[in-house]
């Protein structure tokens, strides 16, 4: 049983954090588009970013900042313009954003981290952003987590947030998180934007290690469409305001904190996968029997990312052959005679051979129909065993619908 509970407040649930979100006018839709997360004291900062060679100015800015000083007070995120592929002027816009906010908050610019989301190739509308900064800072609140979550989304249907609380040394320790993501979602970190706050005291190197491990078990295990974004960022702040002793090694308290951080990231990752553009269901793939966890995760990601598997699920077609084919091309060695596949509770394949599950015969037709009906559930579970090894892995995704093509065909037009 998990040693924590869900609480209200998302990113402002941890002590010493405030947040805000406003409609500055960066989006033509008139929806909220500028968010701020603020720590009342200096916080340890960690980040994991896109692996794309085409990166937004905010990504390079944050990487450089965290290498120099793994501490921060604030995260500023604009929606509407990605500020990617914008050259030197895009870089200057990012620097200017930090400077303007720093002046308003009366802190150093190197204590500010940045994130952007929106259309690639478009610079931030700096005149609008600068005008909105005073209003944004004035709106900072200990209950501002929900408005911040709404202000970072683009094609998302719903905002995504969570907060958990545990006890360390008899004192409450909290972690909160928000995320956005619906399209351009594919493993390679971070495949979206996510911001995490924590009031535990933890060493710089350990916090970064925890975040990397949590990302590998969550955001790096989701895929919607096979496209990694230019702006992918996962940023986490830990300000120590719980007043517990500093966690500097992976002892009992360190393991508990990392487990809770991973739970927050997995919740947000699954929320992103469920909210995939045009999606009708969340798909979870569980793989066991691999030589190690890395192999299991690789197979799971390949299956959940298969366009053929995703299309079959949308069509409510229990096509186990597509699942077997995806597992076989994952780049992981296993004996096909060991392959076992289940859709929910429906056993489709065992010992590398299909079970009598075709459309010939009344009883088999009923099984086929029942398995097809299962694919109409809000969450579809695919279980795959590839051998007798101890490696396990999970990945999350969604089905591929007609609406995905429609949404992306009209994204900039």
Proportion of residues in extended strands: 25-35%
The proportion of residues forming helix, as a percent range, comes to 25-40%
Uncertain regions spanning at least 5 consecutive residues = 183-191
Which superfamily, in CATH terms, is the homologous superfamily of the largest domain? L-amino peptidase D-ALA esterase/amidase
Total strands? 15
- CATH architecture level-2 label of the largest domain: 4-Layer Sandwich
Radius of gyration: 22 Å
In one word, what is the shape?
globular
The end-to-end span amounts to 49 Å
Domains, number: 2
Q: What's the CATH topology name of the largest domain?
A: L-amino peptidase D-ALA esterase/amidase
Order of helices and strands: EEEHEHEHHEEEHEHEHHHEEEHEEH
| Number of continuous helical runs | 11
Give average pLDDT, whole number.
90
Main beta sheet strand tally, sense and closure: 9 strands, mixed
Q: Structural class given helices, strands, pairing? A: alpha+beta
By CATH reckoning, the class of the largest domain would read Alpha Beta
Active site: 191
EC number: 2.3.1.35, 2.3.1.1
Catalytic activity: N(2)-acetyl-L-ornithine + L-glutamate = N-acetyl-L-glutamate + L-ornithine; L-glutamate + acetyl-CoA = N-acetyl-L-glutamate + CoA + H(+)
Main location: cytoplasm
């Amino acid at each position: 049983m998990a040693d924590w509970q869900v609480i209200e407040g998302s990113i402002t649930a941890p002590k010493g954090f405030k947040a805000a979100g406003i409609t500055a006018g960066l989006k033509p839709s008139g929806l909220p588009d500028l968010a701020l997360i603020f720590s009342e004291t200096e916080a340890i900062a960690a980040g994991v970013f896109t692996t794309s060679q085409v990166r937004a100015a905010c990504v390079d800015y944050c990487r450089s900042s965290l290498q120099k000083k793994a501490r921060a007070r604030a995260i500023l995120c604009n929606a509407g313009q990605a500020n990617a592929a914008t050259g030197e002027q895009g870089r200057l816009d990012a620097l200017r954003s930090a400077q303007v906010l720093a002046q308003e908050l009366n802190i150093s610019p190197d204590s500010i981290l940045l994130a952007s989301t929106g259309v690639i190739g478009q610079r931030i509308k700096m005149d609008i952003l600068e005008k909105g900064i005073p209003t944004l800072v004035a709106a900072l609140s200990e209950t501002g987590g929900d408005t911040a979550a709404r202000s970072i989304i683009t094609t998302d249907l719903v905002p995504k947030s969570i907060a958990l609380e545990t006890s360390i040394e008899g004192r409450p320790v909290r972690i909160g998180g928000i995320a956005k993501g619906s399209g351009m979602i594919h493993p390679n970190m971070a495949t979206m934007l996510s911001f995490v706050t924590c009031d535990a005291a933890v060493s710089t190197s350990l916090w970064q290690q925890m975040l990397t491990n949590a990302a590998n078990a969550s955001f790096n295990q989701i895929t919607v469409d096979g496209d990694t974004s230019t702006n992918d960022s996962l940023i986490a702040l830990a300000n120590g305001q719980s007043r517990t002793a500093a966690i500097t090694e992976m002892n009992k308290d360190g393991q508990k904190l990392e487990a809770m951080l991973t739970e927050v990231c997995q919740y947000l990752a699954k929320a992103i996968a469920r909210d995939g553009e045009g999606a009708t269901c969340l798909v979870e793939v569980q793989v066991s029997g691999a030589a190690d966890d890395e192999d299991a995760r690789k197979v799971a990601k390949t299956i959940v990312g298969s366009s053929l598997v995703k299309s079959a699920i949308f069509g409510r077609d229990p096509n186990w052959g597509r699942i077997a084919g995806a597992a076989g091309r994952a780049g992981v060695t296993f004996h096909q005679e060991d392959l076992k596949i289940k859709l929910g509770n429906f056993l489709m394949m065992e010992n590398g051979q299909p079970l009598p599950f075709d459309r010939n015969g009344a009883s088999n037709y009923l099984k086929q129909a029942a398995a097809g009906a299962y694919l109409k559930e809000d969450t579809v579970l695919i279980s795959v065993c590839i051998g007798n090894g101890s490696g396990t892995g999970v990945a999350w995704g969604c089905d591929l619908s007609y609406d995905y093509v429609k949404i992306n065909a009209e994204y900039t037009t």
